[in-house]
Amino acid sequence: MSPIGEGFGRIVQVAYLVEDIDLAMEHWLRHAGLGPWTCFRNIELDTQFDGLGFTMRIHEALAYMGDLQIQLVQSLDPPGTVTPYQSYVESKRWGVHHMAFFADDIEETIARAKAQGFERTCAMRDKGGYRYYYCQSTAMPDVWIEFLESYPDLHTIFEEGIAAAADWDGQDPIRNFEYADL
Q1: Is 42 left (phi over 0), alpha (psi -120 to 50) or beta?
Q2: Taking the CB of the first residue and of the last residue of the chain, which one, N or C, has fewer CB atoms within 10 A?
Q3: CB-based contacts of 60: which residues, under 8 Å, 6+ apart?
């Protein structure tokens, strides 16, 4: 078995689970000077997790530190809903949730992750049909990784976000969008 996380390429995102997305963005702005933030509200993802199919609901905010995307996630699902966030939310364990990698061949990447011991997966699909997978290992249960299915618009989102952060003058620090309107 390969060491956990080997061979997936460069980490492109570090994600933090937060209790309140607005307070978290303000905290990062005030204490780290990180911005601008692009916040997508009321995201709905078709999800398969632990044998259940459901719509997972989140708010997501994105900013960039160099070429690393910082993602803030607020779970909107009711308490007790089985999601990859559930145990964190119930224990009020806010902070780092996962790190993410691009995946050119998502099926091959998931198979490789499973061979490394990431036997628990959460498959998510956005309204555009693009797929994202969380993977968890029993050897390191607090370490989730995510694979972002590569597609041209995703790389454009990263490139534009990196450029916006590099040129940011401190104005317009939080940009909100309703997911349903996109």
Answers
A1: left
A2: N
A3: 21, 39, 40, 43, 71, 72, 73, 74
Residue 154: per-residue pLDDT: 94
Is the pTM for the entire model greater than 0.90?
yes
Q: Which CATH number fits domain 13-170+173-177: 3.30.70.20, 3.10.180.10, 3.40.50.300, 3.40.50.10490?
A: 3.10.180.10
Which one has a higher pLDDT value, 53 or 2?
A: 53
Break the chain into its structural domains and give their ranges: 13-170+173-177
Judged against a pLDDT cut of 80, whether residue 5 lies above it is answered with no
For 130-168, the pLDDT digits (tens) are: 999 999 998 888 879 999 999 999 999 999 999 999 999
Which tokens belong to 10?
A: 């460069």
What's the number of CA atoms in the CB half-sphere (13 Å) around residue 24? 23
